[in-house]
Amino acid sequence: MRILLVYQSSIFVMFLFVVDSAMGQPHPPTTIAFASDVSGDWEIYLTDTAGKHPINLTHNPAADYYPTWSPDGTQIAFFSRRDGNHEIYMMQADGTNQQRLTHHPATDKAPAWSPDGTRLAFTSNRGGHFDIYLLHLNNGEVEHLTENPFEDEAPAWSPDGNTLVFHSKRELNWDIYVVDVHSGVEQRLTHQPLMDTYPAWSPDGSRIVYASMHAEAALADFDLYIMDAVDGGNKAALTDTPTDEAVPAWASDGRTIAFQFEKDGRWVIHLMRADGSERRELINNGAWAAQPKWSNSLDTLPIELFGLQIQQWGKIRAP
Description:
Elements: E1 12-14, E2 31-36, E3 43-48, E4 55-56, E5 64-69, E6 75-80, E7 87-92, E8 99-100, E9 108-113, E10 119-124, E11 131-136, E12 142-144, E13 152-157, E14 163-168, E15 175-180, E16 186-188, E17 196-201, E18 207-213, E19 222-228, E20 236-237, E21 245-250, E22 256-263, E23 266-273, E24 280-283, E25 289-294, E26 302-304
Antiparallel strand pairs: 1-26, 2-3, 2-25, 3-4, 5-6, 6-7, 7-8, 9-10, 10-11, 11-12, 13-14, 14-15, 15-16, 17-18, 18-19, 19-20, 21-22, 22-23, 23-24
């Protein structure tokens, strides 16, 4: 069981977004960002819904993780160790204008862009333990949202921007919680003895998909589950495999979910319908590939083609 908690010629081309027969109906033009160590260290890449021609955006010798898109699809936030510790960074969607957003000796990680584009939610241990914080992009102000002696991590926004869902170890077990960003009122959504992690809100706001380890499973691995967002009701399994699925992400049309899947001792990226059907492999590059995130933009992006080096390289894992 592994959860990745984090932790050439210059030819300009347009991504050709194709219809994949295995997924049924055509997709709108869509870009997926993800993290991979295929080049020898963790970088942020772009691909299309066919997994063709992944593009390295960051080109930095330090580790870059956990991309998240701005609502208009023009920018990507991520976190990186390039200045000696984990900080939040931002860049244009073509990889240009990379800039540091947080400046703190603690660990700042796992950014999530608010639907109105004004804030980034992120996880930080700057208070001595991991809590959820809000970074206001207009002035750099950081707001402390949750405050608990146990870890609160991996925030994701509701589509209306009023609520964050996250996983927390506050009952000595990882469960899913939501918090109102205005009042700070919290609600626990999962109550089972093993781990529930990495929640993501459906685009219509009605459901939350997450990774869960269940005791009744033949093997205690992570599978993807779905539940009602309002109260955690109607929980149902979307996957049932002997290895882990984790870090799910919804397409903006709500019909497809991307996620990382443990295969041959490393992470690869899969796609499936939101009901768990029509599953297929998207990225299997001979190294590690994880943390997929869909762009909400319907426009293709002009980006620089960069040939990926297919090789196995280091294994970065965190419990």
